[in-house]
Design goal:
Length: about 280
């Protein structure tokens, strides 16, 4: 078998598995959930996150016993390691807080990385029937239709997504508030959806022009699949400090329709952070 046909087999298998696992979301969205907190009340987990992760890992393990796994609920507080081996990167429910509240922006996320490169990305919201998929070099799709990022290349015309929830974390609060203020001043508008992978896919489909995500608990499973989907849709995902392609293992990411929008966002955040640093230094 060639590498391409092997990947086709993986893809078909994991597509079926994603749909099956996502039924747990559909069947439980209106039910009462047992909710535990992890790092804080902004970081939730339910019995359904664990159930979906178990379904996905069990099925993939019995099909591909020599593959590796990095998955949100089994990783605990350990920093995962990405090796050259075929590795499935899984967020069983991204947007758990949305899921807990029945806010219908939540999804199952699965990526496959081989030699540290993401080659398959799937983000599926079964509540709104939005299935985002990409395979390396083969384009990005929503429900089987090709998608591409927007043509907006002027940040003042951009619709931007952002996660202000990290204001709850003392050491990040001032940076997040000031970044929010700075982006709102310049951009067309700002939205916040509380689901990293889906929001990145909204960049991929051209409905959002830029998205910034960074904070404790934002890990490889939040961005691996959607980074491929954005790239295959013509967009970029960069490190918010260097502006270079993001290291998926250290996600402090900006997903954008193109590099002009990404550069503008990198600059706004850099200048804002410098102002916050100066303010902090002058009060010490
Ligand atoms: C969460 C989402 C959300 C972000 C949270 C994450 P989870 O992932 O991606 O956008 O603001 O910090 O924890 O925990 O629902 O998989």
């Amino acid at each position: 078998m060639t590498m391409d046909s092997t990947l086709d087999v993986y893809y078909e298998f994991v597509m079926g598995l994603t749909r099956e696992a996502a039924k747990v979301i559909t069947n439980s969205i209106k039910l009462r959930k047992t909710v535990d907190t992890k790092r804080g009340d902004w970081d939730l987990v339910t019995q359904y996150d664990r159930e979906i992760e178990e379904i996905i890992i069990d099925r993939l393990k019995s099909q591909y016993p020599d593959h590796m796994f990095i998955a949100e609920e089994s990783a605990g507080n350990n920093s995962p390691d990405l090796t050259d081996a075929p590795t499935w990167i899984i967020d069983p429910i991204d947007g758990t807080t949305n899921f807990v509240h029945g806010f219908p922006h939540t999804c199952v996320v699965i990526a496959l990385a081989i030699r540290k490169e993401v080659v398959i990305g799937i983000v599926y919201n079964p509540l709104l029937e939005q299935l985002f998929t990409a395979r390396k070099g083969r384009g990005a799709f929503l429900n089987g239709e090709p998608i591409s990022t927007s043509e907006v290349d002027d940040f003042s015309k951009a619709l931007v997504c952002f996660e202000p929830g990290f204001i709850k974390i003392e050491s990040m609060a001032e940076y997040v508030v000031e970044r929010l203020r700075a982006i709102i001043k310049v951009a067309h508008g700002i939205r916040t959806l509380g689901v990293a992978a889906l929001t990145l896919c909204y960049v991929a489909m051209g409905a959002v022009d830029a998205y910034h995500i960074e904070g404790p608990g934002i890990e490889v499973w939040d961005i691996a699949a959607a980074s491929l989907i954005i790239a295959e849709a013509g967009g970029v995902v960069v490190d918010r400090v260097s502006g270079e392609p993001v290291d998926i293992m250290k996600p402090r990411a900006i997903g954008a329709a193109n590099s002009k929008i990404a550069d503008a966002m990198v600059k706004i955040i850099r200048e804002t952070d410098e102002r916050v640093d100066q303010m902090k230094n002058s009060t010490h």
